Protein: SOCS box domain-containing protein
Amino acid sequence: MSAKWDINERLYCCVEKRDLTNVLKLLDDGANATKVTSHGRSAVGQATFKGFPEILNALMKSCEEEYDSYGGGTPKRARTEQSIERTPDGMDGLQWDDEIQLNGNTPDDEWSQLYRYYARMFEQTGEILANTVRLKDPHCLDAYHKAPIHYAAALGHVECLEILLEHGSPIDVPTQNGVTPLHLAVKSPAIVDILLKKKADPNQKAYNTGETALHVAARMADDVRVAELLLAAGAELNATNFAERTPLMIAAQSQNWDIAYYLIAKNARLNLQDHKGYTALYFAAVTNNLSLVSYLVQCGARLFVTHYLLHFCVRNNLQQMAKLLIDAGENMNVRDSAGCTPLFHAIKQCNEDMVEFLLENGAQRFGRDDNVVQELHVAVQNADSVEQFAKVARVLITYGVSINDYNYWCETPTMLAIMLDKYKIAEFLIKEGAEVNKGRSENIVDNFLLARRTTNLNLLILLVNAGLKLNPVPRNLKPPPWNNIDTDLEDWLAFTCSNPLSLQQLCRIHIRNVLIQNIHSHLANSPSYNESRLSNLIRQTGLPPALQRYLRDFNDLPVI
Structure:
């Protein structure tokens, strides 16, 4: 490592320690304050980064000795040397080719002229390179692609910024990505004010994002005064970046509410759309800012169907935002790109509160002709537990969804639950009053065949006690006699097909069927979602509690 390199590294360390005495000593010893060190910054850049104005002032003065910022950027010593023609030492006796006078024209005359021309060019180029080596420009970019003024602007060092500007720092110098000091200064109104007074361009865009300083302020500024200063200096209110987003969109997206309200008050365009078709209202809604959404709607912001904001609210359980959007005119029954309505998503998530909210506000139920699945089928497929399913199912049934609806494949919710091995949900549906013989025909797989295939004896016993008909006798049953019946499903089934149910069991089936038929015609007094309508009717019969449990819970049967 050279001595010059060592002294520049030591200068950087002294700046880091704020050691002005040793900084001045090293500068007198020839240290270069503009040299980029192994730390990635020069001594000037580090003094600005740390916010040490007294050290920065000393460093800038040392640069003035070699660099004349008011003379077009030409070093003083270089300009002096250029005015005196000198011949290098030891070469006084040599003769340049252009001093040789050729007599007459020769074939080599043209080549000689070219040679002399390029010789002069190389001589001048060498002088320029020599001057460049001696040049000390404190405003060059460092290894981080930042000039000292970028650090002063970004970190709010007002005194350092004033020193840099006093010594001729370019006001709009860009980083590698085209970010100017004004872009970086949005955290400090004082810095923004200084830069704008020095004629910084408020509409200069970054190379990589296309953002102006107002875009950055909309995202990061903590003080509305920054936006005020930029607009007063001529910043374009509705400028768009490469994603076609305006400062208002970015303010809403970044939850910078004060800036957003200010931009709206300055008549920013509310319904401009970015490259994905999103508006400021969309960003305000997805960030769940009720007051901003309400204000935007009052000021004329439009709701776009393709934003599917109500779907977003349902998926994220934003009920208040959903209510605000519905009151503003959002379509409750619009289908998203997958063909699903907000109600579908609410049922899929088994969110009983959102399901009730949507139905209460007029959401349409699924149509039988244009849906592959029905409401309860969606709940059966997505519920993780019977407790989760029960809450959603009772809300749906209360609002008129049939417990025996078919899906596209002629499956009832009970059949689907058995097919998916969700036996607890199947048990719940049966006890709620699902018709166990629904859909029995030659081309439909019925509950009996499903239960038989699953080899779940306790489920089959529940189905039979709920009224499942076993006639005609299933094929492949064991022949009589049936002595010492065990718990095997086929043995139990063979015995049951040839022996009638008890009178007690038949009475339960009959009473339940009568009550189920009267569920829709009987006006129960608003049963809670913790109790089914069938349970409510059983309770209103006035039967003894033991008989009510027998009818409602099948408490005499083995647990599934």
In short: The chain is about 50% helix and 0% strand.
